[in-house]
């Protein structure tokens, strides 16, 4: 049995969990707070970052991109990198976009201000940083609207790893109150569809201690 070291609001762990759910891979979630710098966890991943997956054969997988592609290569169910080489390159580009740009502009600042400052630093959030993150979210939702104006899914004709990477980041930002869906009907319909998938429901039911999401977080009628 695989074990997935993660914490509820890690967007990269959420991406992996969505992949595992779509592919029907069983695993045991193990709560890990990377800011605690636990010695046993650092022995597995010296970078001290989640997610990490390990099994009873001694296999250890580190980094969400490597983990997702490992299961894409080893589990044929629900292929998430489809199409031609150019199609797959576009999916990978979008995965990187959400993992890097969206996290840098939105999810990362929200996690720092609304989670780490509260439960680790016992500090007050910076209102300017929060406003900038929410402003950036509008621009990223505009881009999602643009993609969906030209495609059925973010990466092309079928659901792909790009959709899971985007939904994972957005779900954390939404939990932390950083998403305003006004004027983003395309993005909202797409996200409601993602939230409705069986792979997504366990994420929506999970909570971070001391931090409650907005009332509409779990709703499917944004």
UniProtKB/TrEMBL annotation:
Residues covered by the GST C-terminal domain: 84-217
Keyword annotations from UniProtKB, A to Z: Transferase
Domain of life: Bacteria
Entry GO MF terms: glutathione transferase activity
GO biological process per UniProt: glutathione metabolic process
Xref: Pfam families: GST_N_2
Residue ranges annotated for the GST N-terminal domain, each copy included: 1-79
Subunit and partners: Homodimer.
Protein name (Swiss-Prot/TrEMBL): Glutathione S-transferase
Organism lineage: Bacteria, Pseudomonadati, Pseudomonadota, Alphaproteobacteria, Sphingomonadales
